[in-house]
Amino acid sequence: MQKADRVETPAAPHRVLMAVEDADVLDVPATALAYRLRGAATSAPGRLLRGRWLGHPLHPLAVTVPIGAWLCSALFDLLPGQEEAARRLVATGLLAAPAAVLLGLFDYADLDERQRRVGLAHAAGNAVAIALFGASYTARTRGRVARGRVLGALGLAVTSAGGALGGHLAYAQGAGFFRWQSR
């Protein structure tokens, strides 16, 4: 048997991501959400917010700001005397997150059944991450820097899991690929 003929078992993280695709328990809430969003997503403002004018979704672009801010806050947490910079970066991510959420919701309406399952888990995970970063910011503002750092680290871990789901949705499932391309 040649190397190209071998079937490899997917790595454990990929198996977890694929299991979300198979989680039909998510179908009722996932379908209900898509139904509620469909009208707004197909409206003229919805098409604008979905990136039709650019030729691809805007959500992947928007998520870079909160993710980047939160990742940098974790790096500043490792440096002595950078508590204020870290707090401001957490705040920056929190201020940018609603735009990323809104753009993701507009994209959600176009997903098929298996993609909606992953999309719902992606959104839920990122909602938890935003809540953790909100708690981190509150703790930091109240002078509980160590607590803020722990909450921020947890938020970054959850953001990573949510990002893995988003990456799976985009790259393994092809959500948004060639949506508006025509030849």
Automatic annotation (TrEMBL):
Top-level lineage group: Bacteria
Residues that span the membrane, as ranges: 88-106, 118-138, 150-171
Pfam families recorded: DUF2231 (PF09990)
UniProt keyword terms in alphabetical order: Membrane, Transmembrane, Transmembrane helix
Stretches of the chain forming a coiled coil according to its record: none
Domain DUF2231: 55-176
InterPro entries found in the cross-reference section: DUF2231_TM (IPR019251)
This protein's name: DUF2231 domain-containing protein
Biological classification of the source: Bacteria, Bacillati, Actinomycetota, Actinomycetes, Pseudonocardiales
